[in-house]
TrEMBL record:
Protein name, UniProt field: RidA family protein
Gene3D superfamilies, A to Z: RutC-like
Matching InterPro entries: RutC-like_sf (IPR035959), YjgF/YER057c/UK114 (IPR006175)
GO CC, alphabetical: cytosol
GO molecular function terms attached to this record: deaminase activity
Pfam families xref list: Ribonuc_L-PSP (PF01042)
Length: 128
C-alpha cells in the first residue's frame, strides 16, 4: 500500500498542526488552500495581487514536492466577492491560459476564513 507523505517548504507559511501544506499519495499531490499572504504575514490589497501571491505560494509547494504548475490537474478557487471574478481570471490565465491542456477548475463565491483574504486556491497535481 502506498504511504501518504507530508510536503512542506519554509518558503510558504507553515500550516497549523493537523493541516499539511500538501500531501502526496503515489504520484498525486494535494495542495492545501493557499491565500495571498507572504511568509512575513503581509497581505497585499486587491484581488490581482492576492491571486498572484496565492498561486506563487502554491507553486513553491508544488516545486518542493517535485512538481510544478504545468502538472496541475485541478484548481479549486474560492472568491470572497463575485465582482472579483474578472480580476481573478486575469491573473489565473496568466499562469494557465497558454497551457495545451489547462487544469480543470471550479470557482465558488464563499465567505473567507478571514475578511482580509479575497481569494484562496487549492490544487491537485501530478508528481513524476
Amino acid at each position: 500500500m502506498e504511504k501518504i507523505t507530508k510536503i512542506e517548504t519554509v518558503e510558504v507559511a507553515i500550516s497549523r498542526n493537523g493541516i499539511s501544506q500538501a500531501v502526496r499519495f503515489g504520484n498525486v499531490l494535494f495542495v492545501s488552500g493557499q491565500v495571498g499572504e507572504d511568509i512575513q504575514g503581509n497581505i497585499p490589497k486587491g484581488i490581482e495581487a492576492q491571486v498572484e501571491l496565492a498561486i506563487e505560494n502554491a507553486r513553491r509547494i508544488l516545486r518542493a514536492a517535485g512538481s510544478d504548475l504545468d502538472k496541475v490537474l485541478m484548481c479549486r478557487c474560492f472568491l470572497q466577492k463575485q465582482e472579483d471574478f474578472a480580476g481573478m481570471n486575469q491573473v489565473y490565465f496568466k499562469y494557465f491560459g497558454d497551457a495545451k491542456v489547462g487544469p480543470a477548475r471550479y470557482t465558488v463565491v464563499a465567505p473567507p476564513v478571514a475578511d482580509c483574504y479575497l481569494f484562496e486556491i487549492a490544487m491537485f497535481a501530478v508528481v513524476e
